[in-house]
Amino acid sequence: MSPLPRDSLEGSLAETRAAVAEMLDQRDPTFSLPQPFYNDSRLFALDMEEVFEKQWLFAGMSCEIPAKGNFFKIEIGSNSIIVVRGAENRIQAFHNVCRHRGSRLCLKDKGKVAKLVCPYHQWTYELDGRLLFAGSDMGADFDMSAYGLKPVAVKSAGGFVFVNLSEDPEPIDDFLVSLEHYLSPYDMDNVKVAVESNIVERANWKLVLENNRECYHCNGAHPELLNSLIEFDDTDDPRSTGEYRDLVARKQADWTACEVPWQLARFGKRNRLTRTPLIDGIVSMTMDGKPGCNKLMGHIPNADMGSLRILHLPNSWNHFMGDHAVVFRVLPLGPQETLVTTKWLVHKDAVEGVDYDPERLRQVWDATNDQDRRLAEENQLGINSRAYQPGPYSKTYEFGVIDFVNWYSETLRANLGVEASPQLQVASQ
Amino acid sequence: MSPLPRDSLEGSLAETRAAVAEMLDQRDPTFSLPQPFYNDSRLFALDMEEVFEKQWLFAGMSCEIPAKGNFFKIEIGSNSIIVVRGAENRIQAFHNVCRHRGSRLCLKDKGKVAKLVCPYHQWTYELDGRLLFAGSDMGADFDMSAYGLKPVAVKSAGGFVFVNLSEDPEPIDDFLVSLEHYLSPYDMDNVKVAVESNIVERANWKLVLENNRECYHCNGAHPELLNSLIEFDDTDDPRSTGEYRDLVARKQADWTACEVPWQLARFGKRNRLTRTPLIDGIVSMTMDGKPGCNKLMGHIPNADMGSLRILHLPNSWNHFMGDHAVVFRVLPLGPQETLVTTKWLVHKDAVEGVDYDPERLRQVWDATNDQDRRLAEENQLGINSRAYQPGPYSKTYEFGVIDFVNWYSETLRANLGVEASPQLQVASQ
Amino acid sequence: MSPLPRDSLEGSLAETRAAVAEMLDQRDPTFSLPQPFYNDSRLFALDMEEVFEKQWLFAGMSCEIPAKGNFFKIEIGSNSIIVVRGAENRIQAFHNVCRHRGSRLCLKDKGKVAKLVCPYHQWTYELDGRLLFAGSDMGADFDMSAYGLKPVAVKSAGGFVFVNLSEDPEPIDDFLVSLEHYLSPYDMDNVKVAVESNIVERANWKLVLENNRECYHCNGAHPELLNSLIEFDDTDDPRSTGEYRDLVARKQADWTACEVPWQLARFGKRNRLTRTPLIDGIVSMTMDGKPGCNKLMGHIPNADMGSLRILHLPNSWNHFMGDHAVVFRVLPLGPQETLVTTKWLVHKDAVEGVDYDPERLRQVWDATNDQDRRLAEENQLGINSRAYQPGPYSKTYEFGVIDFVNWYSETLRANLGVEASPQLQVASQ
Ligand code: FES
Ligand code: FES
Ligand code: FES
Ligand SMILES: [Fe+3]
Ligand SMILES: [Fe+3]
Ligand SMILES: [Fe+3]
């Protein structure tokens, strides 16, 4: 694959890289980022090119494509990707771009097909991407094998599907092994999406992530969520109280007894898994704290599972309770526009209207998402001012934001292709 | 006329020219264009400056401005143009820009005026562009003759009106002489627009043209159109069958007998005229193949005229049947946005509701336009992906696309003001 | 305050400055501006940076924030500003940007607060900008005094509030002393906003101002306004007639008798104050010329006050009659988009529905604003054409436009940070 360099007409993107590298080299890692990181269109282009097109991204759930020919589509910036289940139950991903004149192949968000047929001139591809048919006459020297769909790296574990647009994706199997392990009680082959929401936040994707990575704002913003959630981020949160640690110890003993994983696991700053208790007596993120679905997930022995929190930078966080799970996917749409997709999962055999009411299930996170959207949008508007300058994160309340911002800074910095300035190299020795 | 160079604040447009020249010099002429040609905003600026502001463009029909003072307006990029019939039946065109402070003069799409009066301070221009009145006091040394409307080159033949924004338009009379000849049976002074449609396609203008220049997609996309149209592009289409050639021979004999021109005529790749049969027994592009208008056009002896197809690059294609004609005009609005105007013409004396039903007349091409819009929009979305790379045109199905793309490439290349790179000059010797 | 330079990622803004300086040095001061001044996005960035962020701008009326804790918000480009009445009746202004992570603090357009509390994490600021509370744990070395709100220069006189985003604002007290004097009969502490309108004009802000600075277009455009307004701009308008001068002399004698200021006062081209008569027998800018409010303003002795016209470049003009006043504020939104806010003021004790009908009060200027919007929008569309070139202003009809455009040109030129070219320096000696 040798696509045209996208910056062929943008002579100054190289200058942008150098300017961005310098800002990263000079920033205080406990302060928020300089303004251009949140609103500049060239910096956004770099975010897409060097982060979203090189990192493993959460795309969707494997339960959404249960059978051969099922597919879903995901748009990563201007790149349309098809994730499809092919022969032998294999999940594959391709660029949704016909090799003839470039039309998108799949127009719908999800569906089921026998082959992948281009709507324009009906070039037809096998589910594994091979070109099978290219009109009746492309000439004698036309080599069908050279025109298969361009593959996209895809990996699946614990019911999660990740894609990576890089040609040489970095390893992620350490995390995936753990993911598989933590999710095994949930029997992710027997799960379904009960209901889904898609909202657009007029804020840079990093503001959406920063907002998620702290609960400093929860007290002022999230009454519905605080019916169930305890603000402490995980079991080594520096603010946690003795009472909280007692609750945690008690719950962890219960979870150990029923062989449900709960230990805090980290993979750099990129991934984290940990099960933490909800408020004592509360079993689910619903308005009344009672289960949102009467049928528990997988082999879960009882509803009182707290929340298994799964973080995957740059684009996902998740809550798995006993009765249902909520998965979140973040996709940048522009420098100040981000799509947030939320899916509520229940046992495949749970019956809508009997075991669960989708309106009730979504209530807490619909409210919370909307509150977070407003916070992120006001954050964006303030940052757009010339008066904005990076401000200090609280090390006790916002360590999760610090971790995210530094993961981002290191990841982008490593991919900029710009040497550190000599002066700073010396300084850091 | 010495307008400010529009790139006075765009230092890097020169770099863009060089990059575009190199892409053109290196492309395979049987493959689709590199991505920036379809979505880059600077390349779009070049398309406007070097193609749409230098080529003869189809603007409208002379029957739309039948009498002195009738005008229509056309927007070519950000340039608003008035086409007006002046004294002695002369069609003239002007920039729709007041010489006082620059207001547009004509706000409506069409109309009739005695003089051209600016809505701002009522500066008043003769229909030939001369400034007649400039308020009551512009000072003693104000030279009225220096402030006439800026003229735009205009030519008319066979009922078609073409404009050219260049100060030194290239010759087009060869084509116009033929156009006049082919249209003479239609008596274009006695024609009217029965109905008109304007749709915006979210696709680059070249994708709209490419879509029109092949019928490879017709089978999969255009059931209504294929009620009447035969897919073969013209009489030397390499795919044509013996049966088709027999039909053609028979029809050509009929047309010769009634002195209606049908011969294939080409003017480079820019213009083509040819009359080709519709499906045997079908006389018009209507749902049932029967005439859309009971009164035939001009001196047309019978309805069975096939379709006189007229191509004018970069912005028009047309079908003239016995009972009615359909004319198409393409105007770029942005890198990924194009206006397509369709007009259905009938004999001036045909009576709406008696001789023709506008809803019935427009049915086939309304459906076809909408189908083509969707194809072009999906083509655009796929091309926007980093995975897009130029793909091969079929020489038997897409020779018309190859011709268009190469006409475009040669036209733009010649106007870029960049020398070919030495290496390539040698290579082509 | 040392915000990140906003052009850190725009290497070519320096080139733009040089190009703009050259265009300004070479323009004819009696002609309209070259095209980029009206539609180029980089030039718009310069307008914001060098004019709107450095000049005193009309923000609102002091009567809108009558008591401690009352605030209003104003958005100057991407800069959100709070104007708030603090302790001891003092009006203060701050950047509406939290020093923590940059959220906007005040989300509403106006309101009343005890403290300024950030909606995100509840950092709390005193009305004088001091940070009072920053969560429960920002660390031992956190210096609260370093994180107060960033102040914005603010001045108030005659009921008008002006803000200036520069750190070193230029003096304006000469004008403010006069403003206070001319407004004293209006007792601006006892005034209220009866009704307000906000319209967006799709035109560059300078076209909105140019439109306001002449009445050359009034005859063709403003029937409602011409029920009351005399077209002559002020008492030294070169077009004024003997009859007009008689009327003026008579009215000025009346105004002198009741000690109401009327003399023409100018502060460079930036400010002008002058009271001029309305049409004889007409006392207010209403459809029938009768008072719009039965209760006169302040200590005004009778309704027949003509109109006190107050100009403040770059963003305000105003009419103060005996019964009511109309104040106008212009804020650029983009290169071709401008917000125009109109407020109708009456005596604080006037009772809606009894003393005045808001619908009647706003009628003339609602109609006039809409007419001017259309003129400015058509002006913009014509100027966008490559055929546009600067046109001549009439020295007798458009001296006000010439003054505005030259004030703008000199103001921008002085702030560009580019030396005049040597050749031109010689030429001007
Ligand atoms: S673009 Fe897909 S078949 Fe032609
Ligand atoms: S702009 Fe046309 S008359 Fe003034
Ligand atoms: S951004 Fe204001 S308190 Fe956090
Ligand atoms: Fe939140
Ligand atoms: Fe088609
Ligand atoms: Fe006006």
Automatic annotation (TrEMBL), chains A, B, C:
<dbReference type="InterPro" id="IPR001663">
    <property type="entry name" value="Rng_hydr_dOase-A"/>
</dbReference>
<dbReference type="InterPro" id="IPR036922">
    <property type="entry name" value="Rieske_2Fe-2S_sf"/>
</dbReference>
<keyword id="KW-0479">Metal-binding</keyword>
<dbReference type="InterPro" id="IPR015879">
    <property type="entry name" value="Ring_hydroxy_dOase_asu_C_dom"/>
</dbReference>
<dbReference type="GO" id="GO:0051213">
    <property type="term" value="F:dioxygenase activity"/>
</dbReference>
<keyword id="KW-0408">Iron</keyword>
<feature type="domain" description="Rieske">
    <location>
        <begin position="56"/>
        <end position="163"/>
    </location>
</feature>
<dbReference type="InterPro" id="IPR017941">
    <property type="entry name" value="Rieske_2Fe-2S"/>
</dbReference>
<keyword id="KW-0001">2Fe-2S</keyword>
<keyword id="KW-0411">Iron-sulfur</keyword>
<dbReference type="Pfam" id="PF00848">
    <property type="entry name" value="Ring_hydroxyl_A"/>
</dbReference>
<dbReference type="Pfam" id="PF00355">
    <property type="entry name" value="Rieske"/>
</dbReference>
<keyword id="KW-0223">Dioxygenase</keyword>
<protein>
    <submittedName>
        <fullName>Aromatic ring-hydroxylating dioxygenase subunit alpha</fullName>
    </submittedName>
</protein>
<keyword id="KW-0560">Oxidoreductase</keyword>
